[in-house]
Design brief:
The complex is a heterodimer of chains A (about 110) and B (about 120).
Chain A lengths: L3 E4 L2 E4 L5 E7 L4 E2 L4 E2 L1 E6 L6 E5 L3 E2 L7 E6 L2 E6 L8 E7 L11 E5 L1
Parallel strand pairs in A: 2-12
Antiparallel strand pairs in A: 1-3, 3-10, 4-5, 6-7, 6-11, 7-8, 9-10, 11-12
Chain B lengths: L2 E5 L2 E3 L5 E8 L8 E6 L5 E7 L8 E3 L7 E6 L4 E6 L8 E7 L10 E5 L2
Parallel strand pairs in B: 2-10
Antiparallel strand pairs in B: 1-3, 3-8, 4-5, 4-9, 5-6, 7-8, 9-10
Classes of the chains: A mainly beta (about 110), B mainly beta (about 120).
Chain lengths: ~110, ~120
């Protein structure tokens, strides 16, 4: 199984400041035949289902504010929120959809400082 | 607008069974790959299974903890995917979500399954 490890487990950032969450996979999720990373980021607010933010590691889902961006390839990935807003308070999960089982990271709780 | 609505959750006894349904609308259901993901109380997300569209073979995949106990099926005429859960244990207590596609782009609100004696 591919193990997804997020850091940090929790993060407090001031409004308007940058928030950065990292995710490392135990093996590469880059599929060589199409040069795509099978990797996504999700946001989950309390009492709500997860919401897809980023897929193919860097592609922003339709309707997601452009302050959210994804970077990285292979085994190391980053989610950046360029200017934290109050509505961004949530738990963020990374996930690989490269191979069964399609594993998630343990989650990073993002709060306002 | 894409909508997914899970139903069938509730209380089951250890060793018992439960069937969840997930109805979809706002997209071409018959072409969709459908996933089930669960979240135990206060815990993270766990993928448990997927069914591909019939044009893509209609095959199913499962995670190790549920393989042999859970079965995913679909009825495209009813725009519904099912999760049959047998031999339930307390470890299966969770909110169960259905989600579409290769990269889980849409999610239902979830159905709570509680396994307790």
């Amino acid at each position: 199984d591919i193990v997804m490890t997020q850091s940090p487990d929790s993060l407090a950032v001031s409004l308007g400041e940058r928030a950065t969450i990292n995710c490392k996979s135990s093996q590469s999720v880059l599929y060589s035949s199409n040069n795509k990373d099978y990797f996504a980021w999700f946001q989950q607010k309390p009492g709500q289902p997860p919401k897809l933010l980023i897929y193919w590691a860097t592609t922003r889902e339709s309707g997601v504010p452009d302050r959210f961006s994804g970077s990285g390839s292979g085994t190391d990935f980053t989610l950046t929120i360029s200017s934290l807003q109050a509505e961004d308070v949530a738990v963020y999960y990374c996930q690989q959809y490269y191979s069964n089982p399609y594993t998630f990271g343990q989650g990073t709780k993002l709060e306002i400082k | 607008e894409v909508q997914l609505v899970e139903s069938g959750g509730g209380l089951a006894k250890p060793g018992g069974s439960l069937r969840l349904s997930c109805g979809g609308s706002g997209f071409i259901f018959s072409n969709a790959w459908l996933n089930w993901v669960r979240q135990a109380p206060g815990k993270g997300l766990e993928w448990i299974g997927r069914i591909k569209s019939k044009p893509d073979g209609g095959t199913t995949e499962y995670s190790a903890p549920v393989k042999g106990r859970f079965v995913i099926s679909r009825d495209d005429s009813k725009n519904t995917v099912y999760l049959q859960m047998d031999s339930l244990t307390t470890e299966d207590t969770a909110v169960y979500y259905c989600s579409t596609g290769l990269y889980f782009d849409f999610w239902g609100q979830g159905a709570l399954v509680t396994v307790s004696s």
